[in-house]
Design a protein that fits this description.
This protein is mostly helical. The chain has 10 helices and no strands.
Length: 238
């Protein structure tokens, strides 16, 4: 049952046009653009510094924005209510959606990792395994935030709010520009946002072959636990 539910959820994400735009087209376009256009003071090859931020963007797009919008409209059309009345246990419904999100993130990572070497990407090989763990942690943290937004508000509000938050985290969260290049206090705030924390941690392991440090891990855990605990109390099936 879990395998069947995971397969359905994955196909629903992959076949959706807006989801494909968020999960693949925008990250690939930004990876190429930010690696070839000289914006900001980055060491060469620029793609080494850009790739961790694009991976964080891909996770945010799939686990937060995509899941929030999908959940909001699933509630509107009664999908969750009908599924909850079937023989599928609730843990299967939740686990299937989580595993589907992780599979799509894995697909994004593979596609981006296959594109980046053509731009000169040379990651620290010792950081690949920790990088996978960070992608999983980031997916869970952003997924909890997506459930929080998509599980309590009207679909129209979810659509506007999720996209607005996506842009805020892109610009102010250390993804469009490195946190050090952001003006004033934004450079400090970025490290306490989930997008900035994930980008910083991925940069440490993939670029500098170092441990990510305690702060970004604690920031991701704090956001995930806080959003998840709140979502448990506020999420409605309809």
């Amino acid at each position: 049952m879990l395998a069947a539910q995971t397969r359905i959820e994955t196909l629903l994400i992959v076949r959706h046009g807006e989801q494909a735009l968020l999960t693949l087209l925008i990250p690939i376009a930004l990876l190429i653009g930010m690696s070839t256009i000289h914006i900001g003071d980055l060491p060469e090859p620029r793609v080494n510094s850009v790739m961790p931020r694009i991976l964080a963007l891909a996770v945010m797009s799939t686990a937060f924005t995509g899941q929030a919008i999908a959940l909001g409209f699933d509630r509107r059309y009664g999908v969750l209510k009908r599924l909850s009345a079937t023989a599928l246990p609730r843990w299967t419904l939740i686990s299937g959606r989580v595993l589907a999100t992780l599979l799509v993130v894995a697909l994004q990572a593979v596609v981006l990792s296959a594109t980046a070497p053509f731009l000169g990407w040379s990651p620290a090989l010792t950081g690949l395994l920790p990088g996978i763990g960070l992608l999983v942690l980031g997916t869970l943290a952003f997924g909890a935030a997506g459930v929080l937004v998509g599980g309590a508000l009207r679909p129209e509000i979810v659509l506007a709010l999720a996209n607005a938050i996506w842009f805020v985290l892109l610009l102010a969260g250390g993804l469009a520009l490195p946190a050090d290049d952001l003006p004033g206090p934004l450079s400090v705030i970025a490290g306490f946002l989930p997008s900035g924390a994930l980008a910083e941690a991925l940069d440490a392991v993939l670029v500098h072959s170092a441990l990510p440090g305690a702060q970004p891990i604690l920031v991701l855990l704090a956001w995930g636990l806080a959003c998840g605990a709140t979502a448990l109390r506020t999420t409605r099936l309809t």
